[in-house]
Automatic annotation (TrEMBL):
Disordered: annotated segments: 1-22
The entry's keywords: Membrane, Transmembrane, Transmembrane helix
Upper lineage: Bacteria, Bacillati, Actinomycetota, Actinomycetes, Micrococcales
Name listed for the protein in its UniProt record: Phosphatidic acid phosphatase type 2/haloperoxidase domain-containing protein
This protein's record includes keyword Transmembrane helix: yes
Key word Transport present: no
Pfam family, one: PAP2
Transmembrane region(s): 30-50, 84-102, 107-127, 147-166, 173-194, 200-218, 248-271, 283-306
Organism: Tersicoccus phoenicis
Domain annotation Phosphatidic acid phosphatase type 2/haloperoxidase: ranges: 108-215
Length: 312
């Protein structure tokens, strides 16, 4: 029998389904679980440093002290942020996410939204009141434990719920918008003298852990029903475009997170003098730390949820 030429072999693989389908960019379920574990570990690491050590408490208290002075002065920004009904806004966004999932008839997405919102909200309250405590280490600070932040958890979970519910081609946009919204909610808790920066960072870790775990639990590849392998070159091209857009959005958010955390470190350590930073330098440091955490978490979620294999 005459051996097949290379073009013949290529066409044969295409007919029999061998080889990789165009645009089929998948993400292993193990990667989702790994991300969830990393986020959960970060929550306990933040608690161990910022609550259980003297240096951590000092760093965490400095922005709150600056915020207290701003709050006492009744700055317009503080008053405006404090009066916004964040829990009501979060509830509306979650309801909108549920409605989108129902209209799209995406039952796995609906389950993922429920797991993320309920899991993050309940575990935040459990950690704050039943697991974590704030020891007296001689630092002039409120002894009441406030980690993780319930406001930030609600706002972050609402933003993630929308990120999950919308069609995949819109997820890069909602990833960036979710980071901005969550940063605003987080900043309001500090400016209004409600929460320390570490409370916000821990809350974002809780949200990220539950979102990734929910995506892993409802991964479509675990569905025993047969799925369509390919929908043509047009769909494959769209798959590649969405992945590329998610990559750009995610890397942009990672860049924002890196810059924000670096500037926050410079402000915390006094490398940027008070003549440039102003009297509220510590407050800016705390706000930038919160922004870096929100950007980093949503960068990871945008990169993960933009893949074809994750909750289409």
């Amino acid at each position: 029998m005459e051996p097949m030429s290379l073009p013949d072999q290529t066409r044969s693989r295409g007919r029999t389904g061998g080889g990789r389908q165009p645009g089929a960019r998948t993400l292993p379920v193990a990667a989702l679980w790994t991300g969830a574990v990393v986020c959960a570990t970060a929550v306990f690491a933040v608690y161990a440093f910022f609550v259980r050590t003297v240096l951590g408490q000092q760093l965490d208290e400095a922005p709150l002290t600056s915020a207290q002075r701003l709050h006492t002065a009744e700055a317009p920004a503080a008053v405006w942020l404090q009066t916004l009904p964040w829990f009501l806004i979060a509830g509306v966004l979650i309801g909108l996410a549920v409605l989108i999932a129902l209209v799209r008839r995406r039952w796995a997405v609906l389950i993922a939204v429920g797991v993320t919102v309920a899991g993050a909200t309940l575990s935040t309250q459990f950690l704050k009141y039943a697991v974590f405590s704030r020891p007296d280490l001689g630092v002039d600070t409120l002894t009441l434990n406030s980690l993780p932040s319930g406001h930030t958890t609600a706002g972050g979970a609402a933003a993630v719920a929308l990120l999950l519910a919308v069609p995949r081609r819109w997820r890069p946009v909602f990833g960036v918008a979710g980071a901005a919204f969550t940063t605003l909610v987080a900043g309001s808790t500090l400016v209004s003298y409600w929460h320390r920066p570490a409370d916000v960072v821990a809350a974002l870790g809780v949200v990220g852990a539950w979102a990734l775990a929910a995506a892993a639990l409802t991964d479509p590849r675990s569905d025993p029903r047969p799925r369509r392998r390919s929908r043509g070159a047009g769909w494959a091209a769209m798959d590649r475009a969405v992945v590329d857009q998610a990559r750009v959005a995610g890397l942009t958010l990672l860049g924002v997170a890196t810059v924000a955390v670096c500037v926050a470190a410079l402000l915390y350590t006094g490398v940027i003098p008070a003549s440039l930073a102003g009297t509220g330098g510590n407050l800016w440091a705390g706000l930038l730390l919160e922004a870096s955490a929100a950007s980093a978490v949503f960068a990871g979620l945008t990169l993960a949820f933009g893949r074809r294999s994750v909750l289409p």
